[in-house]
Amino acid sequence: MNFASDNVAGAHPALLQALADINDETLGSYGEDRFNAQVEQECRRIFEHDTLKTILVATGSGANALALATMTPAWGAIYCHRTSHIVVDEANAVQAATGGAALLALPGDNGKIDPEALRGAIFGKGVIHHPQPAALSLTQMNEYGVAYTLDELSELTAIAQEHGLKIHMDGARFGNAIVGLNVSPADMTWRLGVDMLVFGATKNGALAGEILVCFDPSVVEELEFRRKRAGQLFSKMRTLSAPLAAYLRDGLWLDNARHANAMAQKLAEGLSSADGIELCRQPSGNQLFMAMDPAMKAKLLDAGAYFHDWPDDGPTAVRMVTAFNTLEADVDAVIAAACG
Ligand SMILES: *Cc1c(COP(=O)(O)O)cnc(C)c1O
User: Which atom of ligand 1 lies closest to the CA of 64?
Assistant: First the structure.
């Protein structure tokens, strides 16, 4: 009953199997293997885009930093939400990779950037004293378990384009957002002007690996050098590429996200009927935030549930996250403990 995060889960068996199946083969190194090409082909199909390129990296922080470094000069400004992973959880990796770009951390309810705040923060273009407007970073699904609607995304990307900003999307939970909104990957990304997506896999059933999807293929050469230089180019690339090809093939990534979201939905419905629990917001994906009485919290911990406090959502707030392999029996047991 561990609901601490979606990365406490192991890997989906099909992904481990994909690696085991080719263990006796010799394969080209550093990405010269057929699975690397398959990942790109699968992404072209999934995103309905014939020229996109993909680059595999091991971690989401690495992917975000590399992506934003190609969009932002050292004197540039990156606009993002104040709670975004790049601000709060990456130990200034983006600033290091860009050589010192500013992260302008914007307000907005439920982890979504307020469009007026974005408009107000973009200034100083061409003025030698100011960070130069360079990139917008959106997290979808965001840190509060909420997905921007396509209309909300479109309002933000239009502002970005008006000012010539590049657009980065942190999709550590991209699958959960796609399933939650029931929209197409193309409509949620390049058709709105997203230049680069971090298409997450680690939190959705991979052992490791994130796919950097570049809708503008011209950045790939630079990105490849940046990846190598950052120590993110795997020598035995098959460890990432073979499982990721299996992750994309036949929609496993969607099945995994669907299960995680359904478990969070069930948890939300069950727990919201218990005394002493109040949802902070309706979840659109697999993360659930709630205010919880200390007595209720003690009761659930006693019953064997595990989860984190989330003080940013209030003094008694906690977060529960479900994963691709969350057992329905565990969800039922937590609900029974809360309502019992
Ligand atoms: C988990 C996560 C990442 C990636 O984190 P790593 O630990 O570096 O893999 C990036 N963005 C968001 C929103 C996340 O939740």
Answer: 10
pTM above 0.90, yes or no: yes
Judge if 12-250 and 253-339 fold alike in CATH terms: no
Cβ contacts of residue 29 below 8 Å, gap of 6+? 235, 236, 237
Structure tokens at 151: 């209309």
Q: What percent of the chain has pLDDT over 70?
A: 100
- Atom 14 of ligand 1, residue of closest alpha carbon: 172
The tens digit of pLDDT for each residue in 121-153 reads 999 999 999 999 999 999 999 999 999 999 999
Dihedral of CA atoms 210, 217, 119, 84 in degrees, nearest 10, equals: 10
pLDDT attached to residue 72: 98
Residues 118 and 136: beta-carbon distance below 8 Å: yes
Q: Say which CATH topology domain 12-250 has.
A: Aspartate Aminotransferase; domain 2 (3.40.640)
Cβ of 168 closer than 6 Å to ligand 1, yes or no, is: no
AA letter at 165 = L
Q: What pairs with residue 211 in β-bridges?
A: 56, 199
110 ligand 1 Cβ < 6 A:
no
Q: Is the minimum distance from the CB of 157 to ligand 1 under 6 angstroms? A: no
The superfamily in CATH containing domain 253-339 is: Aspartate Aminotransferase, domain 1 (3.90.1150.10)
Contact 140, 169 (CB under 8 A): yes
DSSP string, 220-267: HHHHHHHHHHTT---SSTHHHHHHHHHHHGGGHHHHHHHHHHHHHHHH
Residues 6+ apart with CB under 8 A from 162: none
DSSP output for 108-154: -GGG---HHHHHHH---TT-TTSPEEEEEEEESS-TTS-PPPHHHHH
Residue 211 Cα, ligand 1 centroid: separation in angstroms?
Answer: 13
Two tokens, residue 75:
């004197």
**What ranges do the domains of the chain cover?**
12-250, 253-339
